[in-house]
Structures are given as C-alpha cells and as structure tokens.
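Preliminary data (for renewal application), adenosine-5'-diphosphate complex.
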Amino acid sequence: MELIRVADVQKKYKTGTVALYDVDLSIAKGEFVFLIGPSGSGKSTLIKMLYREEKPDKGSIIIGGINVSKLKDRKVYLLRRKLGVVFQDFKLLPKLTVYENVAFAMEVLAYDKNTVHKRVMEVLELVGLKNKVRQYPDQLSGGEQQRVVIARAIVKNPNIVIADEPTGNLDSKNSLEIMNIIKAISKEKLVILVTHEV
Ligand code: ADP
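Predicted structure:
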C-alpha cells in the first residue's frame, strides 16, 4: 500500500536557491527508506515539505490520502498525526521531565490519565528509559536525550516515522543504540532515515 507519493515537486527559496527540482517518490507501507545525499542536497527541504513546514512551488505530495500541498493550515494536525519526526537537534522542553516531554506530545487533554500513563511508559520502555522518567533533559546524556525524542515521535502511534540525521551528534556507541531502536520501530512503521553518510 502506497503511503507517500511525491510527484514533480520543486522548491525554490526566496533567496533564489533551487533546493529541489522535479522530485518523484513513491513509498509503500513496510519499507525502510534511506534518504542519502551530501549536505545542501535538499534532504531537509524534502522532509519539511512532508510534514508541511514548507510548501512546494510545484507538484504534489500525498501522504496517507492527505493532499499535503493543498492542506489548509487549520487541518495540518491531521497530517502530523500520521507522522512522527525525530530531529537531530533534540528540541526537548528543558523544564519538563522525560515523562512529561513524552506525555506532552500525546496531547494529554485528548486522553484520560491512565491511557496516557500506559502509552508513555510503553514507549519509554521501548527506548530503554523506563528508569529515567523523572529526570530532566539536562540530566541525560546525548544518546538518552535522543531516545526521549524518539519516544516522543512515536507516542501517538503514527504510521510514518521520519528521522533526520538522528545520530548526527552522537558517538558510535550511542549511534548504534539509536539505530537499533529505529530498526525495531521499522518492523511496525514506515521509517524514513535521513543521512549524509553512506
Ligand atoms: P540538506 O538537508 O541536504 O543539507 P537543505 O534542504 O537544508 O539540504 O538545503 C538545500 C539547499 O537549500 C541548500 O543550498 C540550502 O542552502 C538551501 N536552503 C535551505 N533552507 C533554506 C532557507 N530557509 N532559505 C534559503 N535557502 C535555504
């Protein structure tokens, strides 16, 4: 089943830089996709268009039946439900604990407390951080922080997980751990892994 279809997409920034030209992609459920290219080749631009932080100038992007390029701003949340994004620069909320950072992403108001607790603990166990729920981001190593980001990205159970250079700032041991977690996630979800390394 096709989950992502990118057709004839172009993106030119205001500065005049053409970041993407004539991009076509079709990605099906069950795939594990590597998006590889040197710095500046447009990987981040493509990812930003998938979760509608940027819009293409031309072409179409369809994700799980949603026409992303035509989606109204007030409907963007429908798309974001389908996508979990893991950024390289962690962007955790510093004043919230590990538990709270993940629960916050679940949009706690929409669920009862028990459902939130169960799901948050489930994903924190998956990333091996069940014993650090009460710690704050600055009390964690880089690898642990990145694992919180992964937990946050999957807590709403999206179909698609996009990881933008998730090991970029990590040493080889932590990178390996993160890759193993991502591999485990890819058994259930479509994963797109962005990297400049081969
Ligand atoms: P990558 O993720 O592969 O490093 P990017 O998508 O970040 O590539 O960048 C592709 C090209 O677009 C680069 O030439 C970059 O300088 C340019 N670019 C990226 N973001 C912007 C922006 N907001 N404004 C202008 N140019 C940009």
